[in-house]
Amino acid sequence: GHVQLPSPQNVTLLSKDFDMILTWTPGEGSPPDVTYTVRYKSQERMDKWIKVPHCKNIHRTSCNLTCVLPNFFVKVQARVKAVSGAFQSPWVESQFKEYHLDVELAPPVLNVNVKENLLHVNASFPLATCVESLSWMYDLDLWEAGSEDKKQYERNFRKNTVTIDATALRGNYCLSARSSFQSIDFKYSRFSQPLCVLLNHKG
Predict the structure, then answer these.
(1) What CATH number matches the domain at 109-199, 2.40.50.90, 2.60.40.10, 2.130.10.10, 3.20.20.210?
(2) CA distance 107 to 141
(3) Do 12 and 94 meet the contact criterion of CB atoms below 8 Å apart?
(4) What pairing do the DSSP bridges indicate for beta strands 62-64 and 76-84?
(5) In the prediction, which pLDDT does 202 show?
(6) What is the 3-state secondary structure (H, E, C) of 127-155?
(7) Whole-number pLDDT of residue 179
(8) 3-state DSSP assignment of residue 47
(9) Ranges for the Fibronectin type-III domain (predicted)?
(10) What span, in angstroms and rounded, lies between the C-alpha atoms of 159 and 123?
(11) Average per-residue pLDDT in the chain?
(12) Quick one: 9-98 is in which CATH superfamily?
């Protein structure tokens, strides 16, 4: 008879930290030498499954599709099959996802530079180069350590530095930021771990 390999399980198209990733787990009883091949299709061309060169005969159980997507504003679907020697499993398909609507944001990493009485703050994002041109923004909070009263600097373009006059600030001040992105409504990441600096410290 015709032997089939066990199909990959839990096939999921996952949006995580600005990336679109297909993940799966090996089918039960898969041989140790099993490899996987991934294809995708987009709603622009529902009849054509497109090869993903960097995810052909791979051993790992994930495939980053972010920079393969032809259009970030169209739903895509991916599928994966297991291969071992002359045997292969049936393809298993994921659900549909659209990068623009479904993207999940990671908090930015803050860089703070204190010069004289000015705080220069910028944020770096863990972005793949292909999505750098989308209009990522960040919101910044500033507060005195121990206080609940936060000053907000909202909707700063990703590459812009926020400059804060710290002349009147004295003591330990903390900053935290979240990524934001406007699709149908605003999406936000969680806030980054607070970064604290001592300002105008006399001593």
Answers:
(1) 2.60.40.10
(2) 13
(3) yes
(4) unpaired
(5) 65
(6) CCHHHCCCCCEEEEEEEECCCCCCEEEEE
(7) 97
(8) coil
(9) 5-102
(10) 7
(11) 94
(12) Immunoglobulins (2.60.40.10)
Give the rounded distance of the alpha carbon of 188 from its chain centre: 12
Evaluate whether 12 touches 77 at the Cβ level (below 8 Å). no
Tokens representing 177 are 């930021």
What tokens were used for 1? 């008879």
Tokens of 70: 């032809």
122: enclosing H helix or E strand: strand 118-124
Reported as a single tens digit per residue, the pLDDT across 6-22 is 999 999 999 999 999 99
For 54, list phi and psi in degrees, rounded to 5: -80, 0
Which among 90, 91, 93, 98 is positioned nearest to 42, based on CA atoms? 98
